Amino acid sequence: MTRLRSVLTALAQAGALVGGVLLLAAVGVTCASVVRGAFGRPILGDSEIVEMSLGVAVALYLPWAEMRGSHVIVDVFTTRLPARGVAWLDAAMRACVALVATVLAVQITDGAWRQWDRERATMFLELPYWWGYAGAAVGLALWTVTAGFVAVERFQDARRPA
Q1: Which residue range(s) make up the domain with 77?
Q2: CB 13 within 8 A of CB 154
Q3: What region holds the Tripartite ATP-independent periplasmic transporters DctQ component domain (predicted)?
Q4: Rounded to whole angstroms, what are the CA distances from 92 to 4, 6, 17, 151, 157?
Q5: How confident is the model over 50-78, as a mean pLDDT?
Q6: Total number of domains constituting the chain
Q7: Helix axes 83-118, 46-68, angle to 10 degrees
Q8: Which residues does residue 121 pair with via DSSP β-bridges, in sequence order?
Q9: How does residue 82 score in pLDDT terms, banded at 50, 70 and 90?
Q10: Burial per residue of 8-26, b for 16 or more beta-carbon CB atoms within 10 angstroms, e otherwise
Q11: Which comes out higher in pLDDT, residue 144 or 76?
Q12: Which residues, including other chains, have CB under 8 Å from residue 11's CB and lie 6 or more apart?
């Protein structure tokens, strides 16, 4: 499990770095468009680039957040539970996250195929929509794997004696 954790963590970190590059690109395009807009020459299709980049970036960040345990946790109702009960509840919720990630990955992959099949493209730059869908599908597929792994880890931790 330790070896698999390190491999998944490295993949998740690489995805987050790619997401960071996409985010910086979106910021750069936005800044350039604002500056050029001040002179009456905004970048045509800047919003298309920003929308696609941000969607993919978010999907690529999710596996890294999963491996680090960085998702928001609301523990208002669990503060009075024993540690073992919290561990089992955490394991069950991680399994639910894995299920949701799986559904999202399947749906976005289906969307990518549909966009490719229909040859849909953005209005100004005529960028194929499936590029954004496919990029997000990679991130969500990795999130599915990492969420499943973390769920299994949590179930193993919950089974250990306190």
Answers
A1: 2-159
A2: no
A3: 27-150
A4: 21, 23, 29, 7, 12
A5: 91
A6: 1
A7: 150
A8: 128
A9: confident
A10: bbebbeebbebbeebbeeb
A11: 144
A12: 63, 142
Q: Is the pLDDT of residue 162 over 70?
A: no
The CA distance from 106 to 126, in Å, is 25
Q: What is the DSSP string of the chain?
A: -HHHHHHHHHHHHHHHHHHHHHHHHHHHHHHHHHHHHHTT-PPTTHHHHHHHHHHHHHHHHHHHHHHHT-S----TTTTTS-HHHHHHHHHHHHHHHHHHHHHHHHHHHHHHHHHHHHT-B-SSS--BHHHHHHHHHHHHHHHHHHHHHHHHHHHHHHHS--
Q: What is the mean pLDDT of residues 32-43?
A: 94
Q: Which amino acid is at 133?
A: Y
Q: Quote the pTM value.
A: 0.90
Is the CB of residue 120 less than 8 Å from the CB of residue 44?
A: no
Phi and psi torsions of 121, nearest 5°: -140, 160
| Tokens standing for residue 102 | 């799986």
Mean pLDDT of 142-147: 97
List C-alpha distances in Å: 2 to 6, 27, 61, 117. 6, 37, 22, 41
Q: What is the pLDDT of residue 77?
A: 79
